[in-house]
Amino acid sequence: MTLPPITDPASYLARHTGPDEAEERVMLESLGYGSLDELLDAALPADIRLDELPAREALSETQAQARLRDYAERNTVLRAFYGQGFSDTITPPVIRRNVVENPGWYTAYTPYQPEISQGRLEALLNFQTMVSELTGLPVANASLLDEASATAEAIGLMSRARKKGRGVVLDERLHPQVLAVAAERARAIDLEVTVADLSQELVGEDYCGVVIAYPGTEGDISDPRPVIAAIQERGGLATVVTDLMALMLIESPGELGADIAVGSSQRFGVPLFYGGPHAAFMAVSDALKRQIPGRLVGVSVDAEGAPAYRLALQTREQHIRRERATSNICTAQALLAVTASMYAVYHGPEGLRRIAQRIHDLACDFAASVPQVRHRAFFDTVAVEVADAHAVVEKLAEHGYLVRPISDTLVGVSFGESATEGDVEKLVAAFGGTPAAGASDLAVPRQTPALTHEIFTSIHSETQMLRYLRQLADKDLALDRTMIPLGSCTMKLNPTAGMETITWPEFAGIHPFAPAEQARGWLDLIAELEGWLAELTGYAQVSVQPNAGSQGELAGLLAIRRYHVAKGDGERDICLVPASAHGTNAASATLAHLRVVVVATADDGSIDLADLDAQLAEHGPRVAAIMITYPSTHGVFEDTVRQVCDKVHAVGGQVYIDGANMNALTGLAQPGQFGGDVSHLNLHKTFTIPHGGGGPGVGPVCVAEHLVPFLPSDPTLLDAASPAAVGTGVPISATRHGSAGVLPISWAYIAMMGTAGLARASAGAILSANYVARALEDSFPTLYTGRNGLVAHECILDIRPLTAQSGVTAADVAKRLIDFGFHAPTLAFPVAGTLMVEPTESEDLAELDRFIEAMRTIRAEIDEIIDGRVAYEESVLHHAPYTAWSVSRDEWDHPFTREQAAWPVPALRRTKYFPPVRRLNEAYGDRNLVCSCPPPAAFDVTSEEN
């Protein structure tokens, strides 16, 4: 396959690809190649290279949006009174425009470098504080993926904390999708699952915990204290699945004695999005704070003692602890958590209470006006007994309302933020009722205050909100300011033409459990996207249900595990994981109840074939799978990939190929054709869904024909009381299509690039990485290379020899890059003491050269230390980065100049980014764990302490 030239400078391909053809020639000449095709022939193993893909012409941005508009118009948007964990809400326009639709927020990366992430870290700390105060528990994380998987995470936490319990009790009043996902995830880690009526006495002793619905799926509220007391008397823990808006009016789980609270923050201003992305939450007691899964924002101090935020405890822990990690979650739902937190900041406690009270009052009026209401204590959902539920549902659909058929004779009506008295009148009429005023019965009314921190009472006007959001965004480095050269994470252009469409009401306003005829546009778009992804990867079928890459990994491994069990090979419980693999691989294998056996890495960074042979000889009949990242995590195209696949297949194992690095393969090679049985993709990497400061992510799972029956199943169709049937898949997320709301972005990218454009983008990524590696080889040599001394789409720069000579660490280089206006490359992964650089195809030659200049300047600063001209402890590197205040105040006691510290190259005089804090004291924040907002006085720059 020969790559075509870029003939139309106005095409999306030309806009997406940073270097133009003249710049490409400069880059190719520096490498000694005459064309992109010559470079690819030299870099890629011939036995994996594609001849060609079915040709698909690229659409223009205008054409792609017209197609998306057609899909959107195939959907039917009804007034959503369905409930079941997804509620009607109103996104304040100032938040929609300035967070969800703002590239300063949506193109930011996970805040692993805290000095340049203080804005999003503050927003996430607001989220944690909001959740902690509403749930009455002292520690909350910075979001999980959805309510169902958050419940599964809570079960895992209870199991780890109470190791003696072999079972878990699930309240039958949980939403069906929560029951399904939680039950199967619990069974996957070998817990016995009991689905019980918790209004009856708890029977049995050997439980790690219980999961309680508060409110229940039919809207009913009951006091959970008897069940909490009963499980705690048995030595178990109590998890409460709850509703943040309801908690404005009903007592907090923590006040009632719960150990853990989980749920979704969706109704705090995040659209329905046909199921996601939505930020789930978890809050825990103080005793569990060091075991909580997911990300935790904590308060620490910087080098000058000023308060500063950072990720605490679990930061990238799965890369460190691997199979011993508390969770496999790598991304969160940061952008949606920010949206929900800002909704709370904007409305404040009084505003939220008014919204909650209004929702409850409307529900009460409705309940008083219709016959045969099943429950008298409720918040927003009224369950009405009828002769024919489906007839009532159809009648209401004709009048523009979507309500829930709970059973053949029970209809659920759930009131949301936009509901009106007029809606009540129409709904009452449909049920044949008579309008009446209702009285409140909440069963456990809230007595404790909520949202007491000043952040929730200090912003009242839109002007204040607008400026607060701008202030936070200005503290951060995102892709709208600078290249983010993160190896393994692919931070490239996110198409605005796709981003614009996700908040269209016809997409954003569809409930995930709407009947198929009302979601026809969504179903058609998803089917086309899944088909494209299958074609690009060479697999038989794809499911977009996994709502993060980690969940795609887990879905793939569960498919493999269930495939073996269905064949009668249940003894296959070993997963081979190369030493160089992503840390989530080992954690995902453990969650799939597979035992991890590590395969060594050879000196050139590839899988050690001799060690692989030894492991297969020892464990062959028990090998379920091997997990391969291709190109390798070391940034090379391994020539032996087909051999590795063949060796594992020969002993009856399956091959999982991690698709995190598809940015080097798309259009050039297909994992499903060079040996893979299953792969997951990261749509938030290769396929341009933005990282959003740490989420949303989407991790589709792609499988060969024999694994199709084991793809994730619909969570609403599973009876959680019994294990899923042998020979079938299990649900991985709360909704059939996961985080569908952001899929138009990837659809638009693929449609606008066309087949040839996708291949050209992969080639561009390979060109950029090799250009940077070659340009820096004298300053920071690349640790691993493949064929002809080339890398794939990323390169690992080895800092270790310089550290030995000078004391300067990879972390010092990362912090110093901030002074040049760059986000650091990936630090210390996959090899400690190194930096992994991925430039992507979206960065033009000038930006690549700016990065190269910065790195060469840093090398010169290191040489000053090596040559003895300056001591490491007194060097500009050791003290980096520098705030505007630190270089402009009168006090300056460093041997280097202010200009060298803040403006090390002349171009920075025109465009200079200053971080808001100095280098973080990493250890202090873990020793002094504070995970909710500190008092405003802590940030008073006029105080003597600061």
Automatic annotation (TrEMBL):
The keyword Lipid metabolism does not apply. It is an enzyme of class 1 (oxidoreductase). Belongs to the GcvP family. It comes from Corynebacterium nasicanis. Residues 15-431, 444-712 form the Glycine cleavage system P-protein N-terminal domain. Keywords: Oxidoreductase, Pyridoxal phosphate. Signal peptide: none annotated. It catalyses: N(6)-[(R)-lipoyl]-L-lysyl-[glycine-cleavage complex H protein] + glycine + H(+) = N(6)-[(R)-S(8)-aminomethyldihydrolipoyl]-L-lysyl-[glycine-cleavage complex H protein] + CO2. Its EC number is 1.4.4.2. Residues 761-882 form the Glycine dehydrogenase C-terminal domain. The glycine cleavage system catalyzes the degradation of glycine. The P protein binds the alpha-amino group of glycine through its pyridoxal phosphate cofactor; CO(2) is released and the remaining methylamine moiety is then transferred to the lipoamide cofactor of the H protein. GO terms for molecular function: glycine dehydrogenase (decarboxylating) activity. Gene3D superfamilies: Aspartate Aminotransferase, domain 1, Type I PLP-dependent aspartate aminotransferase-like (Major domain). The gene is gcvP. This is glycine dehydrogenase (aminomethyl-transferring). Its cofactor is pyridoxal 5'-phosphate. It holds the Pfam family GcvP2_C. The glycine cleavage system is composed of four proteins: P, T, L and H.
